[in-house]
Design brief:
Elements: E1 2-8, E2 16-24, E3 27-32, E4 43-51, E5 53-58, H1 76-87, H2 92-108, E6 111-118, H3 134-146, E7 149-156, E8 161-163, E9 166-168, H4 182-190, E10 198-204, H5 212-225, E11 229-233, H6 237-247, H7 251-257, E12 265-269, H8 275-283, E13 287-290, H9 292-297, H10 305-310, E14 315-317, H11 327-342, H12 350-357, H13 359-364, E15 381-384, H14 399-406, E16 412-417, E17 420-424, E18 427-428, H15 433-445
Parallel strand pairs: 1-4, 5-6, 6-7, 7-10, 10-11, 11-12, 12-13, 13-14
Antiparallel strand pairs: 1-2, 2-3, 4-15, 8-9, 15-16, 16-17, 17-18
Helix pairs in contact: 2-3, 2-15, 4-5, 11-12, 11-14, 12-14
């Protein structure tokens, strides 16, 4: 299969005109540049073609909360209570349908790989399903039908919270998240098998939900599998305060002592870090996944993205709670939020933001070598049309900046995953996305109380 790209981003600060991508067996076999007209038999991609975009942090069921948590004042903690209500209404069939629609929405936005931070494991009272991995299997099947790659980050969740006195017991709404012990979590995770489109990884929910000894078990399991491991880190000041009060360390220091920091680790949010925390993340080559649209929606604050980047910490991006699903908005928000807090422009250039949305995101999901338009890379492509009112007037010199700082998900025209067309002319090839979102969200929200 041959694709001719009017413009493509091959790395660097500008787009390249007239790029031909040869694809075989789901991978890019060759890249040619300076080809002014489409070769015979090729498929034409007008606009700017990017490597497939990675959403490194997702909770698929949170999509059902969009628009339902905006009334009145509150905080992350009041939002969490509403999230628990939706989680209680999920079963494998409902979760499959909601996740398939959510992943298909991601595909429409140009996302070709997702990291699903999965902790809704069991029945609402904590009893395992007959297949203890039924909920995770639903997510794997949903991604396959939506046409995108998935890294299933099977999450260890053991405690109800953390205060100065220690870890609290699970609340009623948290029982279905927990396996009872880290060893039980590891045994269940080890029983799972991935398909061709999936990578299996691990996650520690947070220092609130997992004690240090159990963190170490998760880290050892991930090391034995050479799997990525993710963790919610310092999303809220209250989390830091409780950790210091009980453990005498920041959450980052606690993770370091438990042996989790390192190149396999991605810390999600990392909003409230000390200088020492930042130094530990940098020296261990741990990554950070920023989720700006969720962090602003939940009033979490603005993290030190500029300091992290300057220290060499690899940055990736996630849509987390899916307040919106728009990887371009996530990317530009990193820079625009930085401008608001520092009153300095240009800390994160467009190419760096695109790298976070592509190659670094793929690496965070255990997919090294992805997120590139290069020979040998997976044939995952996202094409952005340049003929909308937002992008009219764009040329090859301005294409990167125009797309990063002005495009929206609605400008995505074509998406290819492993050489297969998933989105064509802005339409998903197998899922009626709006109708499926409507039906699957209604199924888990109608009659629910906040």
């Amino acid at each position: 299969m041959t694709w001719w790209c009017e413009m493509a981003w091959l790395g660097g600060d500008t787009a390249t005109a007239g790029v031909v991508l040869e694809v075989a067996d789901g991978r890019i076999s060759s890249v040619a540049t300076g080809v002014e007209t489409p070769p015979s038999g090729s498929t034409r991609l007008d606009g700017l073609t990017l490597p497939g975009l990675a959403n490194a942090h997702s909770h698929a069921f949170h999509r059902a909360l969009r628009g339902r948590t905006q009334a009145g004042s509150g905080s992350f903690w009041t939002w969490r209570d509403q999230m628990y209500g939706v989680a209680q209404r999920l079963d494998p069939d409902a979760y499959f349908r909601l996740a398939r629609a959510t992943y298909a929405e991601m595909a429409l936005a140009g996302i070709t790989a997702v990291g699903e931070f999965h902790y809704v494991h069991h029945q609402p009272d904590g009893t395992p399903y007959a297949d203890a991995n039924a909920m995770g299997e639903a997510l794997l099947a949903a991604a396959a039908e939506a046409g995108i790659r998935i890294t299933l980050l099977d999450t260890c969740y053991l405690h109800g919270g953390l205060d100065a006195d220690g870890h609290q017991p699970l609340g009623d709404h948290q029982r279905r998240f927990a396996d009872g012990s880290a060893d039980a979590w590891a045994a269940r995770a080890a029983a799972r098998r991935a398909g061709d489109h999936a990578v299996l990884g691990a996650a520690v929910h947070s220092v609130r939900a997992v004690d240090p000894a159990s963190m170490a078990v998760v880290g050892e399991w991930a090391a034995g599998q050479d799997a990525p491991v993710h963790v919610h880190l310092s999303e809220q000041p209250a989390e830091n305060e409780a950790c210091l009060a009980h453990h005498g360390r920041t959450p980052t220091e606690l993770l370091h002592d438990a042996g989790l920091l390192g190149e396999r680790l991605t810390a999600v949010h990392a909003t409230h870090l000390t200088k020492a925390d930042l130094g530990l993340l940098a020296t261990t080559r741990s990554g950070v996944c920023l989720c700006p649209t969720t962090e602003r929606d939940l009033a979490d604050g603005v993290g030190p993205a500029g300091d992290l980047a300057a220290a060499g910490v690899p940055l990736s991006l996630g849509s987390d709670s899916h307040a919106v699903v728009d990887p371009f908005e996530e990317a530009r928000a990193v820079e625009l939020d930085e401008r608001l807090t520092t009153m300095v422009r240009g800390t994160h250039p467009a190419a760096a933001l695109l790298t976070a949305a592509t190659a670094t995101g793929y690496a965070a999901l255990g997919r090294n070598g992805g997120g590139l338009l290069a020979a040998g890379a997976p044939a995952d492509l996202t094409t952005v049309g340049l003929d909308s009112v937002r992008l009219a007037g764009t040329d090859s010199d301005t294409a990167l900046a125009s797309v990063v700082f002005a495009a929206t998900a609605a400008d995505v025209t074509h998406v290819v995953v492993a050489g297969n067309v998933v989105v064509s002319d802005g339409v998903h090839t197998s899922v009626e996305v709006a109708a499926e979102l409507d039906a699957s969200i209604r199924a888990v929200t109608e009659g629910a109380t906040a």
